Amino acid sequence: MKQVCNIFLIGPMGAGKTTIGRLLGKCLKMEFVDSDREIEQRTGVDIPMIFEYEGEAGFRRREADTIADLVRRVPIILATGGGSVLLQENRAALAANGFVVYLKCSVDRQVERTFKDSHRPLLQTENPRQRLEQLMATREPLYRSVADCTVDTGRYSSRQAVREILKAYNQAKRKTEKQDEDAQRRAG
Is 16 annotated as a binding residue? Predict the structure, then answer.
């Protein structure tokens, strides 16, 4: 049976995963962890340096190890990196261990929100907009495939997005509890 007590936030860079994750953590009195910050703490270096020395493949290996550890924490609100869904093992770990929320965000909004952020190695290019469009074309079907709920953060403020997530999360939690009760009745 799928575990629903954890909430995992997926979506592109600039979608608001960290901001919304912190708000959810406060509302639910749950630990909030950002997987990128966790990787930096574990390695002692920032993500651009990991990309520089190990490339994207090295970073993705570290990310997969970190996500595998973090999804076992209960309860937790986890904000993942935008590319975390690229690996099947991450998608499976997220889907099996919590309620997955896809924070959808238009490329225009991503450009606005990441314009001055030098901490994003994949945007260190002459045309960040084009890069964001390429990333979205590859990743969006993966976000959708694993999401239990989608919230458009270009349409809602952070607080409104939290309310939408909580509504869907509570519905999913009630449904899971009812299924558990029904299974116990049948077994018992």
Answer: yes
The token duo for 36 is: 């990128």
Q: Is 17 annotated as a binding residue?
A: yes
Domain extents in the chain: 7-187
Please report which confidence band the pLDDT of residue 124 belongs to, taking 50, 70 and 90 as the band edges: low
Topology of domain 7-187 in CATH is Rossmann fold (3.40.50)
Please list, residue by residue across 27-48, b when 16 or more beta carbons sit within 10 angstroms of its beta carbon and e when fewer do: ebebebbbbbebbbeeeeeebe
The torsion angles phi and psi of 9, rounded to 5 degrees, stand at -100, 125
Vertex 165 angle, CA 4 and 176, to 5°: 25
* CA-to-CA dists, residue 96 to 11, 72, 87, 89, 171, angstroms: 18, 10, 15, 11, 17
* 36 labelled ligand-binding: yes
Residues in a beta bridge with 33: 78
51-76 per-position pLDDT tens digit: 999 999 999 999 999 999 999 999 99
